[in-house]
Amino acid sequence: MGHVIAIDGPAGAGKSTIARRLAERLGYTFIDSGAMYRAVALWALRQNVSLDDAHRLEQLALAAQIELLPQRRVRLNEEDVSEAIRVPEVSAAASRVAAIRAVRSALVQQQKHMADTGNVVMEGRDIGTVVFPDARVKIFLDADPQERVRRRAGEQPDVPPEELAAQIAQRDERDIHRAESPLVQAPDAVYIDSTGMTADEVEEAILKLVRARISNGKEHRSQAS
To answer: What is the pTM of this model?
Structure first.
């Protein structure tokens, strides 16, 4: 396995934006774990599978052929679903699907397989705690609720801010209190509060950390040899 940069944090903190930028800057592969759960949720909705039916959802997760492509393109079973997985209904369903242990287990195996091919940047809720607990670099990216609503409003300008605030509050409640892989900062993750920071500033802060960790790792290997 190559270098892994794990970025966790709540909804609207800017994880996807920063992860994509870092991957492009470093020449790493960006694995959008959230898109994978959204893809399974979309398939479940299309198949009229109850979001409480853990067995059926597990079967979908095991069977799903998910491809993560450049420019945020996502294919599910050879169909481009890049826009379909971003609608509010699918977003809400994805957080429920992600709370199911068997679904997470199935997709975590896919994520680990993707990372076997080289250096990756992954973002989500449990990347540094469950998916890649041995990642070289772990970040917990946060921002205050008002800032997160503002950022989501930029992505979804047609949705009233009060509705976005309610969605984020509900998502936080589910992510923090779910029994399986709840949202929590890994003990060895670096906390970054991005409130008031530009994307450039957040990117540079993480790049500085990445370079320091990779440099230290090379020094340790050199000393060991």
So the answer is: 0.77
Q: Which helix (H) or strand (E) holds 215?
A: helix 199-224
DSSP 140: E
- Give residues with Cβ within 8 angstroms of 136, minimum separation 6: 3, 4, 5, 213, 214, 217
Q: Which two tokens stand for residue 151?
A: 């950022």
Could you give the 3-state DSSP secondary structure of residue 127?
helix
How large is the greatest C-alpha to C-alpha distance in the chain, in angstroms? 59
Asked whether the beta carbons of 194 and 14 are under 8 A apart, the reply is yes
Give me the half-sphere count of Cα atoms (radius 13 Å) on the Cβ side of residue 150.
8
Kindly state the helix (H) or strand (E) to which residue 151 belongs, with its residue range.
Answer: helix 145-155
* Cα angle: 90, vertex 96, 99; to 5 degrees: 135
Looking at the chain, how many residues does it have? 225
* pLDDT at site 42: 98
Please state, as a whole number, how many other Cβ atoms lie within 10 Å of the Cβ of residue 3: 18
Question: What is the per-residue pLDDT across 39-86, written as a single tens digit (0 to 9) for each?
Answer: 999 999 999 999 999 999 999 999 999 998 878 899 999 999 999 999
CA distance 20 to 2: 17
Q: Which residues make beta-bridge pairs with 4?
A: 120
Beta pairing partners, 32: 123
